[in-house]
Design brief:
Helix content of chain B: over 70%
Structural class of chain B: mainly alpha
Number of domains of chain B: 2
Largest interface: A-B, 98 and 102 residues
Largest sheet of chain B: none
Largest sheet of chain A: 2 strands, antiparallel
Low-confidence stretches of chain A: none
Number of helices of chain A: 14
CATH superfamily of chain A: MetI-like
CATH superfamily of the largest domain in chain B: MetI-like
Shape of chain A: globular
Order of helices and strands of chain B: HHHHHHHHHHHHHHHHH
CATH topology of chain A: MetI-like fold
CATH class of the largest domain in chain B: Mainly Alpha
Distance between the termini of chain B: 26 Å
CATH architecture of the largest domain in chain B: Orthogonal Bundle
Strand order of the largest sheet of chain A: 1-2
Radius of gyration of chain A: 25 Å
Radius of gyration of chain B: 25 Å
CATH class of chain A: Mainly Alpha
Oligomer: heterodimer
Number of strands of chain B: 0
Number of helices of chain B: 17
Number of domains of chain A: 1
CATH topology of the largest domain in chain B: MetI-like fold
Strand content of chain A: under 5%
Structural class of chain A: mainly alpha
Chain lengths: ~300, ~300
């Protein structure tokens, strides 16, 4: 075996491989790996882009922890995620099970379910903002008036604002989950249905004892992905309410945004990166616990 | 897509013949269809209707159907006076550059990691997979500062340059993983045969691997363009000049300065490309064929 020298390395194609890797290494190095490291450093620094950064230890974390808005944002984010789970988790499953039994023109059903997902989120939010017009001539209030309900204040009331955000978010995202469940449903073993039918099991029993248990793997994954996604909700509170009324829709991501970019005099980048790391750390720990807790159940 | 007999088999043929089952399932499915038309199509139809309705009618009778005729002028006014035409082309330019950067990174990187397989490929793979687990928000602030003050290039800023959107778009680990998995499944005998016939890595990449990878490149392209069309926060931060901003960033801004009818027309225009793309490439979206198949590998 010849000794490895730079020349044999080049002749053996080592250099060509590196050439092919340059776009990847540049893109990820500059725009992914370096910023991840930089976030950790910045969370321990005071940065104002004019003077050199100074090390401040865990001061940024302490500052965020003692910010009176911090518990508000955490509570609101948990509320959003919880409501989104309540609205958005069962609906796609029920729709997918019903849809999978459609015998004619199933494509139209799934296309209709998916359509909201392709609408640009900014358009979706701004359109729903028009629907949520709190006057009695608003689109939703007009329709609810037909069945003698309302008018509701929607985004303008502390109590209704968050559910309104969740409703739009569910509308915008449910279709994608329906498509995932539809794909998973095609792999359910159909022999079990036949066996159950022979044993005289009714429809609901078949769904409960055969369909759902076989889907549990994918159900567990979509649940944790949904929680991770909704914990990072930004667009809805930013565009619908800017966190209002009275901070009723201030979420963790909106708080990070406000720390970094909300102040025209200069951002508090230390606090913003500290809070983003706290969120990432929480989600990582939460996911690990979730996977541990559900492992025996998902592989049984 | 008509399936004839079958479905998933949750309801057996004998059950399907029972009138009670037929009726109840039929009713539930009809309700589902009504809900889907109302929920999925309804808001978009309303937007289409209101885009060509005079503002005053939309405000006073939001659910009315052209009580005083149509106002096609909304669309024209949005396109010219409100500069939606300009923002539309900005969006196209941004989407095209982001697409190009994602395709270049994913195909060359996937080729190197899957076909050339250097010894350190495992390390790079590991680093790529870790980034999949890091929430995007963690990157936001340092990325922004990097664009304002690029390291190594002081007195130079990428703010208001489209490169600030195009370049970071390339760092999508999801794309690289998808493309790499696809390359992993290409028959390796073909690569060997090409090598024996004297094809170097560049020839192998350009004339053999890329032409065989049209399906996965198509899927990555569709999702790259759609994601770029949807993107809001990043272009909002790095493109501060209104004449350069894409539709998603401009729409919230122009809302305050335009009449509702023209604003809704602008939003309708912003939806057209994604909806058309969805209708044309429905299979890629709905079969999950591209994504699911590639992930299962």
């Amino acid at each position: 075996m010849p000794r490895r020298t730079p020349v044999t390395w080049v002749r053996g194609g080592g250099l060509t491989t590196v050439l092919f890797l340059i776009p990847l290494l540049f893109a990820f190095g500059a725009f992914s790996w370096y910023p991840i490291v930089r976030t950790v450093l910045m969370s321990l620094q005071h940065t104002n882009l004019v003077q050199p950064a100074t090390w401040v230890g865990f001061k940024n974390f302490e500052q965020v922890w003692h910010d009176p808005l911090f518990p508000v944002a955490v509570k609101n984010t948990a509320y959003f995620a919880g409501l989104a789970l309540l609205f958005g988790y069962p609906i796609p499953l029920v729709a997918a099970v019903l849809l999978s039994e459609v015998r004619k023109r199933r494509g139209i059903y799934s296309a209709l379910a998916y359509l909201p997902v392709v609408i640009p989120p900014v358009v979706a939010v701004l359109l729903w903002k028009v629907f949520y017009d709190a006057s009695s001539a608003g689109a939703f209030n007009t329709m609810l008036h037909w069945i003698h309900l309302g008018p509701y204040p929607w985004l303008q009331s502390e109590q209704w604002a968050m559910p309104s955000l969740v409703l739009e978010s569910t509308w915008a995202n449910a279709g994608a989950t329906v498509i995932i469940y539809l794909a998973a449903l095609t792999s359910v073993q159909t022999e079990l249905y036949e066996a159950a039918s022979v044993d005289g099991a009714g429809l609901l029993r078949k769904v409960w004892h055969i369909t759902l248990p076989q889907l549990r793997g994918i159900l567990l994954v979509t649940m944790i992905l949904q929680i991770i996604g909704t914990a990072q909700v930004f667009l809805e509170p930013y565009l619908f309410t800017a966190g209002g009324p009275a901070n009723a829709t201030l979420t963790v991501l909106l708080m990070i945004y406000n720390y970094a970019f909300g102040n025209s005099l200069g951002g508090d980048y230390g606090a913003a990166t500290a809070l983003s790391l706290m969120l990432a750390g929480f989600l990582a720990v939460f996911s690990l616990i979730y996977l541990r807790a559900t492992r025996s159940w998902s592989t049984r | 897509m008509s399936d004839g007999e079958g479905g998933t088999g949750l309801i057996s043929s004998s059950e399907w013949r029972k009138p009670t089952v037929r009726w109840s399932i039929g009713t539930l499915q009809a309700l589902l269809l009504v809900a889907l038309v109302f929920g999925g199509l309804g808001p978009i139809l309303w937007l289409a209707k209101s885009a060509i309705t005079p503002t005053i009618d939309t405000i006073t009778h939001p659910m009315g159907l052209f009580p005083h005729g149509a106002a096609w002028s909304n669309l024209k006014e949005a396109w010219t006076t409100v500069h939606v035409g300009l923002y539309f082309w900005n969006t196209v330019v941004i989407a095209f550059g982001s697409w190009a950067s994602q395709i270049v990174v994913a195909t060359t990187g996937g080729f190197a990691l899957s076909v050339l397989r250097p010894k350190y490929a495992k390390l790079i793979n590991g680093l790529l997979l870790t980034t999949l687990f890091v929430p995007a928000i963690v990157l936001l602030v340092p990325l922004y500062i990097e664009i304002v003050h690029p390291p190594l290039f002081h007195h130079f800023s990428l703010i208001d340059s489209y490169w600030a959107v195009w370049l970071p778009a390339g760092a999508s680990a999801f794309n690289v993983v998808l493309v790499k998995r696809f390359f992993d499944n290409l028959p390796r005998e073909i690569f060997e045969a090409a090598r024996i016939d004297g094809a170097g890595p560049f020839r192998l990449f350009w004339s053999i691997v890329l032409p065989m990878s049209k399906p996965i490149i198509g899927v990555v392209s569709i999702f790259a363009v759609l994601a770029s069309w949807k993107d809001f926060l990043w272009p909002l931060l790095v493109l501060t000049n209104p004449n350069e901003q894409p539709l998603s960033v401009r729409l919230p801004e122009i809302q305050a300065q335009t009449s509702l009818g023209v604003f809704l027309a602008a939003m309708f225009i912003a939806c057209l490309v994604p909806i058309a793309g969805f209708l044309v490439f429905q299979r890629s979206f709905l079969r999950g064929g591209g994504l699911g198949g590639a992930i299962k590998g």
